[in-house]
Design goal:
The complex is a heterodimer. Chain A is 40% helix and 25% strand. Chain A is α+β, with helices and mostly antiparallel strands. In chain A, strands 13-12-11-14-15-16 form a six-stranded antiparallel beta sheet. A five-stranded mixed beta sheet of chain A has the order 4-3-2-1-5, with helices on both faces. In chain B, β4 (283-286) and β5 (289-292) form a beta hairpin. The model of chain B is unreliable at 1-5 (pLDDT under 50). β13 (399-402) of chain A pairs antiparallel with β1 (69-70) of chain B.
């Protein structure tokens, strides 16, 4: 097995820019001793002299990747782990095959048995049929209580929207942020955080200096659709029901999904697009996966502060993985049940033309009309900057999609294409495409994702 | 490009104004969406409810029904690349340098990136195309590197310049060769652009540049006058003298001093002759000594010629104010004038100066400043004297800086054995002197020189009480940037980790070794045979 990460991919794993810089600085052979790797190339390890008296023991499982270091850093991966990986990428020849020392073997063994231990704990906590029945009933009651609260919140929100239509959205343009924040807080009280988020986004739209009217109408339309659909819950299919509950902010239980409630798909998945953002002081990593069989999947990973993301995925790498999809009309968000990285596979996927991609978007919209974004993989497209300074993607049929991209990204994409067609992956929100990555001749390019 | 029209604009207007001010009216539009909107409007509901439902239908239709744009233009393709891409390792190192965020790392940036580009071009390789825009943005203001950047960007350079007007103007320099544009920029531009335009004019059309400056000079602020004179001084010719002579009448001493410096550099100028005439009054040769007769006052003619009340160049508690004037005068007279006048060679003249115990400091400083400015045999005579502390004065440092690279390196190498002897009898101060000398070698060090200096640093770092000092600490990175690349082979012998006694010393040594190693890594990444053979195809 060979793992061919690039230095940039390794640095993407850094929890912040300071850790990335420190990792780079430490990735000098002179600062390391006993650099070694296992005979199957799965594990690498080494010792780095830090400020302590004895050198830090750093190890990495490339099949993940996963890291462990004896340094006291709270960052994960720490600078030593990043440096070890950087060294492996740049100077693989310095890593001699060696017998796995106990401090590496024990850790590898722990990693393997982690899932088993979790299963064992769950088994030991098995309940009697009576206890299970009681648990189920109390869960149902909690759910009904919550739905009642949500219904009350939605009825209030509908009145708010009706008032807006009466007074006109022009009247709220100059309202302070707190106007929307208070409305969102009432929805949080009503246990509808998804709707609360949409209302908060209205404040951001109103703060724009131009093009805010249509965007606000679109956002209010989405809110209206979700509210109206929720109020007709009894008449909905199970999939649409799941969709609307997710939109309102009721999470599906990951345990239940993994236990069989969600549909699972086994495939080779390429991490085709990835970016991080912060939401309510929580770091979120959004990873789009695209399977060899043509299915796409969204994996969200969360972390507080400098803690590591709960799922570690590297953009541009193929994983052989079993994914479990959340319930809904569109199989979009998924959980990873099992995964092994297969980085030796060249990142190549079939995409579609602009017209076909928009048709699939229209179909998705018909199923879930409040769909926020949809992943699009376009093939044979060329980036182009028009005279008015806007960026477009043009396909072979001369159909174009507007890009939401900074000039740096636009020119990077243009230079990468060299005027020749390339494949591009991005998030389409119905009006603009946010480019996340490009493919050309079996090569993958991750694009910067700072918004305009 | 054809844009889709929104036939339901009236609904949007109602939403903006509100139904209180603009009641909802029936929309007459065809097609599926028109029918849907009409059907939604027929229900028995409040008009606000109907409005938001109709807007929702339009919002979805807008997203689902239209291809946002269609194009007819033909896009042209970048010509095929002929160079191989640089290796992953070389690229990674360049990105490492580009992402350096520390303050004051501009020089490091510039030096290492220019070295990277030179190695890239020498290896006939190119930047991967996805990084070309970043490099073009980075190199905008570095005009002297534009050609090299162009070569390292391969065919993508010209191709991207044809698409991006901003880059084209920056890199082809079309703006700077148009004389009228330069004149216009000089006349109405921002001060920074005016200076740039004047510098370009001066290099291409020196006579016209001088006329341009002379015409506007009186209206300029004194800071601008001094800045323009500084640009003018970079390449002087005899025809500049009348203008500069006129400038000596300026009210501000800063302007007069700048003009005097420029005139002093023109061989045989009238200012030089006036200075010689003054020097002849104040200096004579008697009893194998130079005799000094200090100027009595700073008269108007001296002020006009740029002599200032108390030049900071000769600030020393042992030098009085009149001696300061004398130093300023003598520094503008070629030492060869006195050699001829008194029939002495350079060494004899210096000996005669030092023989006058009372004025030896004043005379030696003036001779150092004059030797720095005019060169000649006096430079050698001064450097041979072991009893002169060259690095104690600004004049001495200026003298070192004025030496040709090979000469200064040889001088340091000659002195190195005495600095290297860490005997009890040798105090720290003489060893510290090396760093002042090294500070003046601000160009690419030769291989032999680099080896010897690294050996010295290795030796010092192993001493019980190593002598590095502040000058070394503050210049460690700069020294690492100036060293020959061979330093990379030796630098590992400096055991930074073992040096835990002094945090400043340790940090300085770390900065130096890290910089040398980075440069050496870059060098090796381009010279590694494996990289060259396995390098990505064009």
């Amino acid at each position: 097995m060979t793992f061919e990460f690039t230095a940039e991919q390794v640095l993407e794993l850094a929890p912040d820019s300071a850790a990335a810089k420190a990792g780079r600085d430490l990735s000098s052979p002179g600062k390391w001793k006993n650099l070694s790797k296992s005979s199957d190339d799965r594990a690498i390890w080494g010792q780095c002299q830090g400020s302590g008296s004895s050198p830090y023991q750093t190890r990495a499982d490339l099949n993940g990747p996963a890291f462990k270091c004896s340094c006291p850093s709270r960052k994960f991966p720490c600078k030593h782990s990043l440096a070890l990986m950087m060294l492996y990428v740049a100077h693989g020849e310095l890593f001699d095959q060696a017998e796995i020392p106990s401090w590496v073997a024990e850790w590898l063994a722990t990693r393997g048995s982690k899932q088993k231990r979790k299963d064992d704990v769950e088994k030991s906590a098995e309940k009697t049929p009576e206890q299970l029945d009681e648990l189920l009933q109390s869960k149902d009651k909690r759910k009904q209580d919550r739905l009642s609260k949500i219904q009350a919140g939605i009825e209030e929100l509908e009145l708010f929207v009706i008032d807006l239509m009466r007074q006109g959205i022009g009247s709220v343009k100059k309202q302070p942020f707190v106007f929307w924040k208070n409305r969102a807080a009432r929805l949080v009280d009503a246990q509808a955080p998804g709707l609360a988020r949409l209302v908060s986004e209205c404040a951001e739209i109103c703060a724009r200096t131009s093009d805010w009217e249509d965007a606000l109408i679109d956002k209010l339309s989405t809110i209206n659709l979700i509210c109206r659909t929720f109020l007709k819950m009894d008449k909905l299919s199970p999939e649409l029901k799941a969709d609307v509950l997710t939109a309102i902010g009721i999470n599906q239980s990951q345990d239940e999904l993994l236990a069989g409630a969600g549909q699972s798909v086994d495939d080779f998945w390429l991490v085709v697009g990835q970016y991080n953002y912060t939401q309510d002081r929580l770091r979120v990593q959004k990873s789009w996966l695209w399977g060899k069989k043509g299915q796409s999947a969204l994996v969200l990973s969360f972390a507080h502060g400098n803690a590591p993301f709960d799922v570690m995925l590297i953009a541009g790498i193929f994983y052989q993985a079993e994914l479990v999809f959340y319930q809904g009309s569109l199989k979009q968000r998924a959980l990873i049940k099992t995964k092994n990285s297969e980085p030796a596979m060249a990142p190549y996927l079939e995409g579609s033309s602009v017209a076909l991609a928009l048709t699939s978007y229209a179909e998705a919209l018909a199923k879930t009309p409040w769909l926020d974004t949809m992943p699009l993989l376009l093939q044979k497209v060329i980036p182009h900057k028009t005279k008015d300074g806007k960026w477009w993607l043009i396909d072979q049929e001369k159909s174009g999609l507007p890009l939401i991209a900074r000039d740096e990204v636009g020119w990077q994409l243009t230079s990468y294409s060299g005027g020749e067609p390339l494949s591009l992956f991005g998030e389409w929100n119905g009006t603009t495409l946010k480019p996340l990555s490009a493919f050309k001749n079996g090569n993958y390019l991750k694009l910067q994702t700072v918004e305009v | 490009m054809r844009q889709a029209k929104n036939p339901f604009h009236e609904l949007t207007e109602t939403a903006i104004l509100g139904t209180d001010r603009k009641p909802l009216s029936a929309i007459l539009a065809g097609g599926d969406l028109g029918c849907t909107i009409a059907a939604l409007g027929e229900r028995e509901l409040p008009q606000e409810r109907l409005l938001i439902d109709q807007l929702t239908a339009i919002s979805i239709a807008k997203k689902a029904g239209v291809v946002p744009g269609s194009f007819t233009c033909d896009l042209w393709v970048c010509p095929r690349e002929t160079r191989h891409k640089v290796s992953e390792r070389s690229l990674s190192l360049l990105i490492q340098v580009l992402t350096l965020e520390a303050k004051g790392s501009e020089l490091k940036h510039f030096k290492i990136i220019s070295e990277w580009l030179e190695l890239c071009d020498k290896a006939q390789q190119r930047m991967p195309e996805e990084f070309v825009p970043r490099l073009l943005d980075w190199g905008r203001s570095l005009i002297e590197m534009h050609q090299l950047i162009g070569l390292c960007c391969g065919q993508h350079f010209d191709w991207l310049l044809s698409l991006n007007e901003d880059w084209r103007l920056t890199y082809t320099g079309k703006q700077s060769v148009d004389k009228q544009d330069l004149i216009q920029t000089f006349e109405i531009g921002e001060q920074k652009d005016r200076l740039q335009a004047f510098a370009s004019m001066r290099s291409l059309w020196p006579e016209e540049a001088l006329i341009l400056l002379a015409n506007s000079f009186e209206k300029e602020s004194f800071e601008n006058k001094a800045a323009f004179l500084k640009v003018l001084s970079k390449k002087l010719q005899l025809s500049d003298e009348p203008f500069l002579e006129n400038t000596l009448k300026d009210r501000r001493k800063e302007v007069r001093a700048q003009a005097a410096t420029a005139l002093g550099a023109i061989s045989g100028s009238r200012l030089q002759k006036r200075m010689i005439a003054r020097a002849n009054q104040y200096l004579s040769f008697e009893n194998n000594k130079l005799a000094v007769n200090l100027p009595e006052e700073l008269d108007d003619s001296m002020l006009r010629d740029g002599i200032v009340e108390n030049s900071p160049f000769y600030l020393d508690s042992r030098i009085g104010i009149k001696a300061n004037w004398l130093c300023q005068i003598l520094s503008l007279v070629p030492p060869s004038h006195f050699e001829q006048k008194f029939g002495l060679n350079a060494s004899e003249l210096l000996e005669a100066a030092l023989a006058n115990r009372e004025w030896s400091l004043v005379l030696s400083l003036a001779l150092m400043a004059a030797a720095a400015r005019f060169g000649g045999e006096m430079q050698q005579a001064l450097l041979k004297r072991e009893d002169l502390n060259i690095t104690d004065s600004q004049a001495g440092l200026a003298l070192l800086k004025a030496l040709p690279q090979e000469h200064l390196e040889n001088l340091i190498l000659q002195k190195l054995p005495s600095w290297s002897q860490a005997r009890d009898s040798i105090k720290a101060a003489p060893r510290l002197d090396l760093w002042y000398y090294l500070e003046q070698v601000d160009f690419n060090w030769s291989e032999r020189f680099t080896r010897e200096i690294i050996k010295f640093i290795i030796k010092e770092s192993r001493e019980k009480v190593p002598v590095f000092g502040h000058t070394f600490y503050s210049n460690a990175s700069n020294f690492a940037l100036r060293m020959h690349i061979v330093a990379g082979e030796l630098i590992d012998q400096i055991n930074v980790d073992a040096d835990t006694a002094d945090i400043y010393r340790r940090n300085a040594l770390e900065r130096m070794t890290d910089t040398v190693k980075l440069r050496y890594d870059i060098f090796q990444s381009f010279n590694n045979i494996d990289n060259q053979q396995k390098g990505p195809t064009p």
